[in-house]
């Protein structure tokens, strides 16, 4: 299985905080409107069949469903999925959640989704290229695939680990492993090897003075990638 047991344990232990916007997951709540609108602008969600890979507690999955998408969220953390299910029942926003690996879902349901999202996950798995291939397999011809992850360079180490985890304490210490960060060139290679076309990159930055996140062209630390699966 393409998963790190320690990573699963780490996020499972925090699962009960997933929907608390003042908790360790505050950054996810704050960036979610940005990434949601970025996705929706490139692939309108209403009426689309969507799968969210590594959905965790369902913040993105539920927001896409609220936009009118038919959403499936998958993860390998039982606790996170239980939290996601409970919140979906409380909010009335319907999302199907399932504990299954991306690679296994790709074998079961190839070419079944208009949109595939995999956000803040690639830097937590042993083989990110395998996840990218699974995402490509899951998408229909002409479908859209969206990734987000962290760049690997001194600036990213300074801001994403020393800054976010140790100085500003925005994230628990140990949330990220710098060695698992992925450069845009590496991710571009993974997508090409999976047969995808890159539509564009977008940077995501945090201003510690205003405490506001924004999308821009600076991909030095956090970045997002939009891809298309060629139509047959």
Compact summary:
This protein is an alpha/beta fold and 232 residues long.
What would your notes on this structure say?
Pathway: Cofactor biosynthesis; ubiquinone biosynthesis. It catalyses: a 3-demethylubiquinol + S-adenosyl-L-methionine = a ubiquinol + S-adenosyl-L-homocysteine + H(+); a 3-(all-trans-polyprenyl)benzene-1,2-diol + S-adenosyl-L-methionine = a 2-methoxy-6-(all-trans-polyprenyl)phenol + S-adenosyl-L-homocysteine + H(+). Belongs to the methyltransferase superfamily. UbiG/COQ3 family. Pfam families: Methyltransf_23. O-methyltransferase that catalyzes the 2 O-methylation steps in the ubiquinone biosynthetic pathway. The protein is built from 8 helices and 8 strands, in the order ααβαβαβαβαβααβββ. The mean pLDDT is 94. It has an 8-stranded mixed beta sheet with strand order 3-2-1-4-5-8-6-7. α6 (128-138) crosses α8 (184-193). The protein is of the alpha/beta class and 232 residues long. A hairpin with a 4-residue loop joins β6 and β7. The longest helix is centred in the first third of the chain and has 17 residues, at 26-42. Helices cover 39% and strands 25% of the residues.
């Amino acid at each position: 299985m393409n998963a790190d047991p320690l990573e699963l344990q780490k996020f499972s232990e925090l699962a009960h905080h997933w929907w608390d916007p003042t908790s360790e997951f505050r950054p996810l709540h704050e960036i979610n409107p940005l990434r949601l609108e970025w996705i929706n602008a490139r692939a309108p969600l209403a009426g689309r069949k969507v799968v969210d890979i590594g959905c965790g507690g369902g913040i993105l999955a539920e927001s896409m469903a609220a936009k009118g998408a038919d959403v499936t969220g998958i993860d390998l953390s039982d606790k996170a999925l239980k939290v996601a299910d409970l919140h979906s029942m409380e909010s009335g926003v319907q999302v199907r959640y399932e504990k299954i690996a991306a690679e296994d879902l790709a074998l079961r349901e190839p070419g079944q989704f208009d949109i595939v999202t995999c956000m803040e996950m690639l830097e937590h798995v042993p083989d990110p290229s395998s996840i990218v291939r699974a995402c490509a397999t899951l998408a229909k011809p002409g479908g859209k695939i969206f990734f987000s992850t962290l760049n690997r360079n001194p600036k990213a180490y300074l801001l994403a680990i020393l800054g976010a985890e140790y100085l500003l304490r925005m994230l628990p210490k140990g949330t990220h492993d710098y060695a698992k960060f992925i450069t845009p060139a590496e991710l571009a290679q993974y997508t090409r090897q999976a047969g995808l076309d890159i539509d564009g990159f977008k940077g995501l930055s945090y201003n510690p003075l205003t405490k506001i996140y924004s999308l821009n062209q600076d991909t030095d630390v956090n970045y997002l990638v939009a891809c298309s699966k060629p139509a047959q």
